[in-house]
Amino acid sequence: MHNPAMQDLIDGLPPLERLAASYAPAATRPLWIGYFALEQRLADAARDGRDAIMIQLRLAWWRDRLGEDAARWPKGEPLLAMLSPWNPARAALSALVDGYEALHVGEEGTAALDEARVGVMLALAGLSDIVDLTPVELAARQWRGLAPSTPGITPLPRAMRPLALLRGMALRGEGGSPALRFLAALRLGLIGR
């Protein structure tokens, strides 16, 4: 990742996502960074206060790109370059675009976006050659608040360590001192629980 444009994408991630991506194995880290950067870009495109038509136009551009094979994507857009490993699972990313549209210009609230995020985690697991998707789906649903926490949380494969971190921090909630939250995030990243 010595490309300055790629480094800018990484540097632009929120701290928790940056930390989560750092715990992904080198082989899957680009998948995670691409996903997190796309989330950032879509959230910005659909941020509150923007006109609904402008939101739809910005999201339509991403929907159109993700509907095409990565070989046809415009060159020069660092995020598209980062998303090229997602080519076989573009549909999951396109559902994320639809989720943002539903969130900001539809009536579904966060439901469509949360389901799309679960789908992205399943697609990421598939791209990481993970066969048993059951624990990944449960962890993704717990991360998004779509499933209750269960005692003795099933560990996730190493490639999904960022999801373990996100799930663990979501289940902890917002309470606690920043130092304790940081230590909890480090523990989740290192051992996955």
SS strand fraction: under 5%
pLDDT below 50 for ≥5 consecutive residues: which ranges? none
Q: What is the count of β-strands?
A: 0
> What about the largest sheet?
none
Q: Count of DSSP helices?
A: 10
Helix fraction, binned, reads 55-70%
Task: Give descriptors for this structure.
about 190 residues, mainly alpha, 10 helices, about 0% strand, transferase, transferase activity, EC 2.5.1.32, Phytoene synthase
Question: What does it look like?
Answer:
- The model has no long low-confidence stretch (mean pLDDT 87).
- This protein has helices at 4-11, 15-22, 29-45, 52-67, 78-83, 90-105, 111-127, 134-143, 161-172, 178-191.
- The longest helix is centred in the N-terminal third of the chain and has 17 residues, at 29-45.
- It has one domain (4-191).
- It is globular.
- The chain contains 10 helices and no strands.
- The chain is an all-alpha fold.
- The two termini are 28 Å apart.
Short description:
By secondary structure, the protein is mainly alpha-helical. The chain has ten helices and no strands.
Blueprint of the fold:
Blueprint: H1 4-11, H2 15-22, H3 29-45, H4 52-67, H5 78-83, H6 90-105, H7 111-127, H8 134-143, H9 161-172, H10 178-191
